[in-house]
Design goal:
globular, alpha/beta, 9 helices, 6-stranded parallel β-sheet, two-stranded antiparallel sheet, 2-enoyl-CoA Hydratase, Chain A, domain 1
């Protein structure tokens, strides 16, 4: 009998059963519906994890169903998994957000900024309001040439109790946002506050909208670029991360 390349029928590759295909399809659909994520990055066993922050950052309050939202309780476990997974060597965060819950946005920004692995953020379309701290939270940040970022003070919706303690709380929250942005970018405090409290540019509001090149010129974002630039930079950071990890023989801080 001619040799067919396999020692026995048991060693021949088995085609996936229809039940397995259905299970994979259902898992992919569930990931899209629940987390807004696809399994595209795992198909080729990529070492880069891509996380998207789209629409409005949803925090403790559930937003109306017609709003396009990104739920922060979904992003936090994704970041933890990316940090723990040895196959993931870098994280790419893509933003096109109008902002949202302040504490939820700061929580996401803090998570990204404290990861030991290389991280890159890319602002496409817009990175407004609380999206600004998230955009600057990575080790390297990019913004598309036509993308915009709206910088404005913290605002509250709904019933506000008009007592001094309320305004003190808002002031402390505002200071948290300012300090985070300053510690993770090259913008000065005077320039940031100038942009934040500027009047006359935004209709019926205070603040400033900056376009990609201006965000870089002010020191808010590191460079103007797109997906290719962000991935290229992330790969360079991953090579440095590997070299440093091999030298110390463990996790890089």
């Amino acid at each position: 009998m001619p040799f067919n390349g396999y020692r026995s029928n048991q060693e021949m590759p088995q085609a996936p059963s229809p039940n397995q295909d259905d299970a994979r399809k259902n898992a992919a659909v569930e990931a899209i519906q629940q987390l807004g994520q696809t399994a595209a990055q795992t198909a080729a066993e990529s070492n880069i994890y891509c996380m998207t922050i789209i629409g409005q950052v949803e925090g403790h309050m559930v937003l109306p169903p017609q709003n396009k939202t990104t739920k922060y309780e979904h992003l936090i476990p994704q970041l933890v998994a990316a940090e723990q997974n040895p196959k993931i060597e870098g994280v790419l965060v893509i933003l096109n957000t109008v902002g949202g819950d302040v504490e939820a946005g700061l929580a996401i920004a803090e998570m990204i900024s404290t990861m030991s692995k290389p991280t890159v953020t890319l602002v496409l379309g817009g990175g407004h309001s609380i999206g600004v701290p998230i955009a600057v939270s990575s080790k390297r940040s990019f913004i598309a040439e036509t993308a915009t970022m709206t910088i404005h003070p913290i605002r509250l919706n709904g019933l506000v109790i008009g007592v001094p303690q309320t305004f003190e709380y808002l002031d402390k929250m505002q200071e948290r946002v300012i300090r985070f942005i300053m510690s993770h970018s090259r913008i000065s405090e005077d320039k940031l506050k100038e942009l934040m409290f500027k009047t006359g540019e935004l209709t019926r509001d205070i603040g400033t909208t900056v376009i990609g090149p201006d965000a870089v010129r002010f020191g808010l974002i590191d460079a103007v670029g797109g997906v290719g630039d962000a991935i290229r930079e992330l790969n360079l950071m991953i090579e440095e991360y590997r070299a440093k990890r091999d030298r110390i023989g463990g996790m890089v801080q």
